[in-house]
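Researcher: If convenient, please comment on what follows.
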Amino acid sequence: MGSRSSYVLVSIAIVTALAAISAAAPARMLLFGLVAVGPALAAASANPPAVLAVGGYAFAAAFAVSTWQGFLGSAEQLTRLAVLTGMTVVGWGVARHHRNLTRSSAGTAREREMLAAVAEQSADAIIASDLNGVVMVWNGAAERLYGRPASEMIGRSFGEVLAEDGDVDLDEALAELSAGRRIHLDESHRAGKDGTPFVVSVDVWPVRDDDGIVVAAAATERDITDEKLARERSARADRLESLGQLAGGVAHDFNNLLAIILNYADFIADEVSGDAAADLSRIRNAAERAKSLTTQLLLFAKREPTRVEIIDLNQVVTEAGELLSRTIGENIRLVCRPGPDGLPVRANRGRLDQILFNLVINARDAMSEGGVVVVETDYVELAEGAAAGLPAGRYAQLTVSDTGCGMTPEVRDRLFEPFFTTKPADRGTGLGLATVYGIVGDAGGTIGVESAPGAGTTFRILLPSAVAPAGGRAGRSAGELAHGHGELIMVVEDDDFVRDLVIRILRDNGYRATHRDPDSLDALDLHDVALVVTDIVMHGRSGPALAGWLRARRPDLRVLYMSGYNDAEVRREYGIAPETPIVRKPFTAVELLAAVGEALSAAHAKGT
């Protein structure tokens, strides 16, 4: 602004000087017309009113000098004043045009400054390069994303931040942009200056000059690493949910089969001896283990609360050894060394098996060339403060060691993080050790790991010791079964084999039992029925719906439910109260008869 004002002041000074020179010079030289230079110079100020002011001042000076020299009314005076007027008008027009250009340039400059500020403050990386890939713009977000300052990148090729084996061919991309085509990448892998990988979504477009010629390329890159991980976890959760639903259905059907296997094995237990009895015992033990597996399937399917009991940790290791040795492969030797005495712990058997399985499989994967896995148990006495988070006392220790490749401190520190894995995507989910960590914590214990590259790995788990239950395992002799006294039990079950099993157990133990199809109960006489035993999930009408229909006809009727599904799930879905008993499949005769006896006792206590 100051420079523009100076044009006006100079113009006035020049007009004044030229007027003085004209007045001092001989009149015949007619110099007074030279003051027309003033408005022309004032036009550079881009100030139209100032040009008119200078022009008016020059006109007055020229008129005064020419009149003083005797040219008033002459052609010379009129001609020169006309020229002066014309120069003033032209100067005014030039100044006005110059002012408009200046304002337009200022507006454009402000827009560019605003765009530059927006680009600099954008959360997305904004990068521009020429058609050779040389970086010209590198905003603050790009600095944060790549860990490289603008001073380091501007003037260098963008190809320096792309991995040689990456998913972007810079030359090919620049050729596309030179041809005027935009580029969009949903996901592109990058790495920061420190080697940290990340994923970006990329939009690149050609930059054209005023003639429409492509002269550069501009790109925005958005970090979608966390978003991608969230999508993958969501997809993994959806897959696990679908798998859980499948597992729940399989477990239900399998529980029906196991109920048949277990109980028919009991039926013939007293009829065989010698090798046949031993074989029958093995069949029953296998069925019991299968029962535990279906419980785990249900836990996985719906996250059912675990059933906790007192278990001998030595027995868990011994029984799991044979299965694990077949699982880990022929080039790896599994050595199980249970402690000399019993190691009772209060835990869920399925969860303990899960801990062993995950740790042994993890050890196997660390020994691609073969090796040895050692599983040991022992007692540990902890003094106060000996282990962080654990009170003083006696603990059962489970140790799993391998002769594998070991781990670096960085991997060891992140070992129990969910979804962290060093295995390929098709071999590991990063959930195995995180699950182990959660199970141990839920059981009131701790897990530690010792490892170094090339020195193998050792996991040490401490679980609170429990008091072993008095007496042995309950037998299954007929004398321990709860007998009926001729009560009529109606059985409703859509699986014929399970229905026949239930009826046989009831009839063999003092009850009268009959069965009804769940869809053919309309003509049923409920007068003598003491109890209805019904499955919950059936084809057509469900057990709770059936119970509601029957109780509408006889309000005091007692109902006992059976189910092979997740207990919490069926209670929630069918509105079954928590205090309502449910016989879990696969059940034994002892369990079924006990539940029937309790249901009838409750009915008698109420006088019904």
Residues 75-121 form the longest helix (47 residues). The radius of gyration is 47 Å.
